[in-house]
Structure formats: C-alpha cells, structure tokens
Amino acid sequence: MKNPIKMRPLVGDFAENKEVAKKLRIEQIMPELSRGGEVVMDFDGVNGATQSFVHALLSDPIRQFRDMAYDNLYYKNANPDVQKIISIVYRYMQESLDETRSEGRRG
Is the pTM of this model over 0.85? Predict the structure, then answer.
C-alpha cells in the first residue's frame, strides 16, 4: 500500500468505533496483507483510541498472518497514548498465539 491510511478522517480525534475498525480491517488491511503488502496507518490528529478499537482493527490480521503482520503493519504519527494501546493489543495477541502454539505441541 503506497499511501498511508489516514485515520483521523475515518475515526475523528478519538478512535473508538469498532465498526469503522472492522471495515478498515476487511476492506484495506486484510487484502493488502494477503498480497504480501505493507499497511501504514497514519494517526496524525488522533488523540486516543480504545483497546477494543485497536483489537477489532488488528487481532484478525495478526492471528491470520502472524509474523508477516508484525513485519508489515506500520503506525505513523501515533502519540504515546495510541502507541501504548497498540502495544497492549500486540502483547495480548502474542501471548494468545504463544499459548495456541504450546497447546498444539502438547495435543
């Protein structure tokens, strides 16, 4: 994806609408990752985000594409509050995937 997804026009100054996150995930993020492309989300002007918004945006791409999602998803102009929420979701997803891998080896 050559052009970043400008989040502010889609979410306003606070990203909380999970339906908007779902639409972005389905229409832009997943198709780009399935082509092996990179996705850049520009959070310029977004002052905050809920964990549920970020989870709705990123959990399926991370679950489906795993390491490629970690390598191909980028966040531009995310303030420290938004960065913290993204990090929490990444950490949660990584722990979830690690548990799934461990259970698969035991079963």
Answer: yes
- CA distance linking residue 46 with residue 36, whole number of Å: 27
d(C-alpha 71, C-alpha 103), whole Å: 25
User: Mind listing the pLDDT tens digit for each residue in 85-100?
Assistant: 999 999 999 898 887 6
Query: Which residue spans within the chain are E strands per DSSP?
Result: 5-6, 14-15, 39-42, 48-49, 73-76
> Strand 14-15 relative to strand 48-49: parallel, antiparallel, unpaired?
parallel
pLDDT over threshold 90, residue 104: no
State the helix-helix crossing angle for 51-65 and 80-106, rounded to 10 degrees.
40
- From CA 33, how far away is CA 81, in angstroms rounded? 26
